[in-house]
């Protein structure tokens, strides 16, 4: 028996059935995962619809329900993975998506290896490295470098569509690599992983965001693991003390953020 409950399919119906005629729609899937709806495409980014991993450290448990049964998904134009950790590249999440949609699967070499081992056809896998560019529908996907001490092959992604530019960090730590991204792109929303000891501390998160120079910051990953989560009260205390030059969004699992070029 799963150690967590799964929502009914009404949330999946919302994601698959809500059009985005202008700008973008971004849904939080809990932990590292997001669904991004452009005018013509639906992208699933680091989706993880599994429970507590069987090899989880003592005291770690998934603290959230599972919002979607992946066997019910019927719309996906691309599935992106920033790296091969189970909560960013989960075979039991990815395989049903390959079986029931025509999605392309995009990720670095480590993620591509997991995808192939899961049974996804090699011709549907786009193995990427920093500097690569792909187009899916009306979305441009640019692969950027990352610094994750626990995953040497990790990448991050820039996604551009609808006049908006988003940065998806995966689990990257603060790194000067982010300065090059911030210098090359005007980022409307930067998504960075928050929570100790695995992810960024509040101070490091804000330093990483300063390198990226986004209009707005969205901390994620703070909500999924008991014992490895982020304290939002402390984050906002540090954020207020630093007078940061960017706004902040917080999404709980299931929340949707509408993004447009002028908002």
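^ structure tokens above, recovered residues below v
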């Amino acid at each position: 028996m799963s150690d967590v409950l799964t929502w009914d399919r009404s949330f999946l119906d919302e994601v698959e059935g809500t059009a985005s005629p202008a700008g973008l729609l971004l849904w939080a899937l809990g932990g590292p995962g997001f669904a991004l709806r452009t005018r013509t495409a639906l992208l699933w980014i680091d989706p993880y619809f599994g429970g507590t991993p069987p090899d989880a450290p003592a005291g770690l448990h998934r603290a959230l329900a599972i919002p979607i049964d992946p066997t019910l998904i019927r719309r996906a134009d691309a599935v992106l993975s920033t790296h091969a950790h189970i909560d960013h590249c989960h075979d039991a999440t990815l395989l049903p998506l390959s079986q029931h949609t025509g999605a392309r699967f995009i990720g670095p070499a480590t993620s591509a290896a997991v995808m192939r081992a899961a049974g996804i056809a090699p011709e549907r896998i786009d193995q990427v490295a920093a500097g690569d560019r792909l187009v899916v529908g009306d979305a441009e996907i640019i692969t950027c470098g990352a610094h994750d001490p626990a995953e040497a092959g990790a990448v991050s992604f820039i996604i551009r569509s609808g006049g908006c530019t988003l940065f998806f960090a995966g689990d990257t730590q603060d790194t000067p690599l982010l300065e090059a991204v911030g210098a090359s792109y005007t980022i409307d929303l930067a998504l960075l992983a928050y929570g100790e000891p695995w992810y960024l501390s509040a101070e490091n998160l804000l330093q990483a965001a300063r390198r990226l120079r986004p209009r707005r910051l969205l901390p994620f990953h703070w909500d999924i693991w008991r014992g490895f989560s982020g304290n939002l009260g402390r984050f906002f205390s540090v954020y207020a003390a630093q007078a940061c030059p960017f706004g902040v969004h917080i999404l709980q699992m299931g929340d949707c953020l509408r993004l447009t070029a002028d908002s």
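The first strand starts at residue 24 and ends at 28.
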